[in-house]
UniProtKB/TrEMBL annotation:
It comes from Hymenobacter roseosalivarius DSM 11622. Pfam families: Hydrolase_4. It comes from the Bacteria. This is Lysophospholipase. Gene3D superfamilies: alpha/beta hydrolase (3.40.50.1820). The lineage of its organism: Bacteria, Pseudomonadati, Bacteroidota, Cytophagia, Cytophagales. Residues 44-249 form the Serine aminopeptidase S33 domain.
């Protein structure tokens, strides 16, 4: 993908366009992130910047259109080494510190401000929710953010006690000295199968960028996540209003079950409920009965409830 400073056509069709955001090289070589926007239909002073999760990229057309219908300019960021931003010489998803993503967010927020958006909602799903929360605390352009919306944020590992308290800290320590050591991906394949049309789901997206069998992770990546989770457990001090939505239940049955269509098949929702209030004093937490891990990919009736709660909160918060 050629580097440019203007918008180009996007794979999602004529209503969407992308802008490559070049970044300084890192330990793997050249780096870029990619800003995608829904073509504006008129002037808007409010906008949303959406950040995807792990093993993911932006493809949710419906979500973009819903925001636009409510008066928000819509932008999404494919972080470095994900989706549109993944370059041939890079390991997918590979970072050694979550702060590496801050430059991607800095650049994206600068574009939104330059395009006339004075009120910006930063939204993150799963790992993107973790990154968004930490950026809102520490990022260079954090003052541009008016509110934060987190969709099933990845605030803690969904593992048994031994793995969470012994195995992961040990692997994170190894990551300091051997960051490229590969570990099998941790997302259940049944979650991916519950989403894509080729399997059991209703959505169509580019499987090489969001495979059902997830990309392997590295000990360096695990160390970065572990450090981010420790910062969440200690607590942040975010003064801005925050909405956290999550599924009401976690998938319990081993192997495939219909639970994946009505519960979180990736995270433990009890962790989200327990840790979300540590983000700051203005956190609203709401459990969505029947929701999936990515609430915006839940069944249609559930999605309607999610959008209703989201835009009700946005109207009360941002006007």
């Amino acid at each position: 993908m050629a580097v440019c400073s203007s918008y180009q056509p996007d794979i999602l069709g004529p209503d969407f366009e992308l802008r490559v955001l070049p970044q300084p090289a890192d330990y793997e070589g050249a780096v870029q992130s990619t800003l995608v926007r829904l073509r504006p239909t008129g002037p808007a002073t409010k906008a949303v910047l959406y950040v995807h999760g792990f093993n993911d990229y932006f493809f949710q057309r419906e979500m973009a259109l819903r925001y636009q219908q409510h008066g928000y300019g819509f932008y999404a960021l494919d972080l470095r080494k994900y989706g549109r931003s993944w370059l041939p010489h890079q390991r997918p998803n590979n970072v050694r510190d979550l702060r590496e993503y801050y430059a991607d967010l800095d650049a994206a927020l600068a574009v939104l401000r330059a395009e006339g958006h004075a009120t910006i909602l930063l939204s993150g799903h799963s790992t993107g929710g973790l990154v968004a929360a930490l950026y809102a605390q520490e990022g260079q352009n954090r003052s541009a953010i008016s509110a934060l919306f987190l969709n099933s944020p990845f605030l803690a590992m969904h593992q048994d006690w031994v793995s969470k308290h012994l195995g992961i800290p040990l692997a994170a320590t190894v990551g300091r000295f051997a960051p490229n050591l590969k570990i099998p991906g941790t997302l259940p394949t049944d979650y991916g199968a519950s989403l894509h049309q080729q399997h059991r789901g209703e959505w169509n997206y580019h499987l090489p960028w969001k495979p059902v069998v997830v990309f392997p992770i590295t000990t360096g990546w695990l160390r970065a996540i572990h450090a981010g989770h420790r910062r969440i457990r200690r607590g942040l001090a975010l003064a801005l209003p925050i909405l956290v939505l999550h599924a009401a239940q976690t998938v319990q049955a081993p192997g495939w079950s219909e639970e994946y269509f009505r519960a979180d098949g990736v995270l433990n929702v009890r962790d989200i409920r327990a840790l979300a209030p540590r983000l700051g004093p203005r956190v609203t937490v709401y459990a969505v009965a029947g929701g999936m891990h990515d609430l915006m990919l839940s069944r249609q009736l559930i999605r309607e409830r999610v959008y209703q709660e989201l835009f009700k909160w946005l109207t009360a918060t941002l006007g």
